[in-house]
Design a protein that fits this description.
4% helix; three-stranded antiparallel beta sheet; mainly beta; globular; single chain
């Protein structure tokens, strides 16, 4: 069994808790505006589209396409495995709904813009990091 690399973990706040802990139940939870039905990410307590504060976390499919990426070769932490792919993926639920993430379980040179990916959670302490891997 391999251990996950050390990562800097996010601070958990009321409006971000669902996003960072939804992986415990295998769900990617994205804030959603009840008023205008828009998804909101990064998670904030107010809708940027309509200004409503009627925002709640809602499960999404976890499927996305790679919108942009870079291959990082810098070892920021001693335990960090390099190279790794830092990416911005666009969730299929809404155009322009982007999540910053790492692409895993693929050689960095094989990652491509437009590639179909799906969420895979990595547990560290009480946080379930939403990473993405190629969709099989």
């Amino acid at each position: 069994m391999t251990t996950a690399p050390a990562r800097t973990l996010p601070d958990i706040e009321a409006h971000t808790k669902a996003f960072w802990t939804g992986g415990k139940s295998g769900q990617l939870l994205i804030n959603h505006c009840v008023s205008c039905q828009s998804y909101i990410h990064p998670p904030v307590p107010m809708c940027a589209s309509c200004g409503s504060r009627d925002v709640t976390a809602k499960p999404v499919s976890g499927r996305a396409k790679v919108a942009s990426f870079t291959v990082n070769h810098m070892r920021w932490l001693p335990e960090l495995n390099v190279p790794y792919v830092f990416a911005i993926v666009e969730l299929v639920e809404q155009a322009g709904l982007y999540v910053s993430t790492e692409i895993i379980n693929i050689e960095p040179e094989k990652v491509a813009i437009g590639m179909d990916v799906c969420v895979a959670f990595e547990k560290q302490e009480d946080v379930y990091l939403p990473l993405f891997q190629p969709l099989d």
